[in-house]
């Protein structure tokens, strides 16, 4: 039986909700329920979406809801966090391709309303402005889904000396290149740059839903939500957001639990 309870991390600067899941499957179901509720409450709203391993189970759950006719995406708009520089939408390693194959092609969404940065854009500044204008024209993001990198990145905001604001072109750190090499034939194939929403764009979402799974993320979960707010741990800025829900499994919460914080 699944256990679900909320705690408020009162050692943080502001409160956040942590929903504990038993494992990845349980986490995916719980997070999907939250996102499904968001779509039911606001069927013409804007969802901010993420790629990577973490949301695959959640997307499968949403697909099942949609196929059963219980969830309608026809009025929903989506905006993705990031895209690799140099990859065309048809490239099977691009984030546009990931979203098509893991979600968009299986739900009744109008893909003209699904935005991902243009990996083939050559002018980084112009692409950043274009993407920020899309977010603003949509009226902002109602619920932003996030994963977290082993180095604390959110989207591709890598550890750095400052927080970037809007969408920008970023050089990926070696830690991220190493972590993402599992999706590519060789590590040399991993793109070295990406377009990513900045911290300000992410923080402007009305609600944040972060999913964290596995023991390898236990230390960064602790650092991000119970440590100092610093651009060296980009996810720590979420401590300043007023509506954050973290769904994490027991392995990811192991350090926080061992310290009696949850
Ligand atoms: C992906 C993204 C990244 C991932 C993060 C965790 O769009 O923005 O920040 O969320 O790298 O990736 P996984 O889920 O593969 O561990």
Explain how this protein is built:
The chain has helices at residues 24-41, 56-67, 95-102, 124-137, 174-180, 199-203, 218-226, 254-258; strands at 6-8, 17-21, 46-49, 77-80, 82-84, 114-115, 143-146, 168-171, 193-196, 207-212, 244-249. By secondary structure, it is α/β, with parallel strands linked by helices. α1 (24-41) crosses α2. The radius of gyration is 17 Å and the shape is globular. Mean pLDDT is 94; it is low at 1-6. Residues 50-54, 81-82, 147-149, 153-155 line the site of fructose -6-phosphate. Fructose -6-phosphate binds next to loops.
Short description:
The chain is α/β, with parallel strands linked by helices.
User: Percent of residues in helical segments?
Assistant: 25-40%
Categorize the overall geometry: globular
* Major sheet size, sense and barrel closure: 8 strands, mixed
Order of helices and strands: EEHEHEEHEHEEHEHEHEH
Distinct ligands, ions and cofactors found in the model: fructose -6-phosphate
Number of helices: 8
Can you list the strand order of the major beta sheet? Answer: 1-2-11-10-7-3-4-6
* Main structural class: alpha/beta
Number of E strands? 11
> Distance N terminus to C terminus?
19 Å
Average pLDDT number: 94
Write the layout of secondary structure elements.
Blueprint: E1 6-8, E2 17-21, H1 24-41, E3 46-49, H2 56-67, E4 77-80, E5 82-84, H3 95-102, E6 114-115, H4 124-137, E7 143-146, E8 168-171, H5 174-180, E9 193-196, H6 199-203, E10 207-212, H7 218-226, E11 244-249, H8 254-258
Parallel strand pairs: 2-11, 3-4, 3-7, 4-6, 7-10, 10-11
Antiparallel strand pairs: 1-2, 5-9, 8-9
Helix pairs in contact: 1-2
The chain binds fructose -6-phosphate (F6R).
The site of fructose -6-phosphate (F6R) has 13 residues, from loops.
